Amino acid sequence: MSERVTKNVWPVVPILLALLTTTLLVLLVGADAGVTYQALFDGAFGTSDRTFSTLAFWVPLMLCATGLLITFTAGLWNIGVEGQMIMGAIASSWVALKVAAVYPDIPGWAIIPLELLLAAGAGALWAALAAVLKVRGGVHEIFGGVALNNLAIITTNYLISGPWQPPEGGSFRGTVPFPEHALLPLLGNTRFSPLSAVLALALLLLIGLALRGTFWGLKLKALGNNLRSAFLLGISSEREAIMAMMLGGALAGLAGSVRVLSWFDSLRQSISGGIGFLAILIVLLAGLRPVWTLLIALIFSALLNGGTIVQLRTQLHSSLSGIIQGLLVLFVLLFGDYRRVFRPKQTLAEELQHE
């Protein structure tokens, strides 16, 4: 098998290993593996409502993952994606509560683009903070991102229990529901917005093509792989790092907007739902490949949405999907890099000698 083919198909190996290990665990506790996986599939795609629920969760997951394709290509560990998503949700909520609710005559076709634009801007600015802390203050983006994540959570809790609290009093449940025309148009009685899905797919295609076939994509790869090469290409590492983080943050902000305007109808505590951290795992598992990112994001969304039916049909706990995700993390760490698996022994020995 050629190296190129191996590289393209290798992301499926950790998935298969995780499923195989899960199957063995299911058999060890005396459950029927076939029934278990059928229940998992039915929970995710068994009815149209479940399918659209899976897709509704998949859209913000895809937006965050697409943003991480940019930052990871540039060699930046954007752990702050959760906070960027939350700030995007806050920005959209401000438009819904302070513009749409106060001026109900403004049509949805004007309100919704404003919500999305402000959400992207808020996510970009929040990511810029982490980038500036890195390039100017020497604070690693992991530490800056974690701190900004916590600050975003605190800001959300303050808003929903303070200035934006419902008339009946402050609580951590959420704000008042947004006006109907401020929400993304949904398909029937589901949480799925076709508009958001089209947006996510278009952005994935655009970013994928840009990273692969433009000078901008080449600059990001040079920045991520070799700072000396980047310098020889005349690339400003500080400027490109900040711009990459801002673009990634903008997409995370859009994910927060989609989350608050379709999955929910108000700003709530823990609005991100761990989607940002899950997107990090997806991009690493996909090896920064856009097509694999799309497929693996859909698999993860299906796992999360199918867990409840597993518990009802098999008496196994709904955390089975979490077990599969945990095993995926383990096998990605062990076997995610095909080059490490197939590295010649002599090369490895030489590297150990140098160390």
Which strand-content bin applies to the residues? Answer: under 5%
Distance between the termini: 32 Å
Q: Report helical residue fraction.
A: over 70%
The radius of gyration is: 22 Å
User: How many distinct helices?
Assistant: 16
**Biggest beta sheet attributes:** none
Task: Count the E strands.
Answer: 0
Mean pLDDT: 84
The coarse overall form would be: globular
Structural class: mainly alpha
SSE arrangement, N to C: HHHHHHHHHHHHHHHH
Any low-confidence stretches, pLDDT <50, length ≥5?
345-355
Description:
The chain is an all-alpha fold and 355 residues long. The protein has a domain at 60-305. 74% of the residues lie in helices and 0% in strands. The protein is built from 16 helices and no strands. Helix 2 (12-28) packs across helix 14 and helix 3 (33-45) crosses helix 13.
Name its key features.
355 residues; mainly alpha; globular; disordered C terminus
Topology:
Blueprint (H helix, E strand, L loop, with lengths): L2 H7 L2 H17 L4 H13 L2 H26 L7 H20 L7 H28 L5 H21 L32 H20 L1 H11 L1 H6 L4 H27 L11 H12 L3 H25 L5 H16 L2 H4 L3 H10 L1
Condensed summary:
With 355 residues, the chain is mainly α. It has helices spanning 3-9, 12-28, 33-45, 48-73, 81-100, 108-135, 141-161, 194-213, 215-225, 227-232, 237-263, 275-286, 290-314, 320-335, 338-341, 345-354. Mean pLDDT is 84; it is low at 345-355.
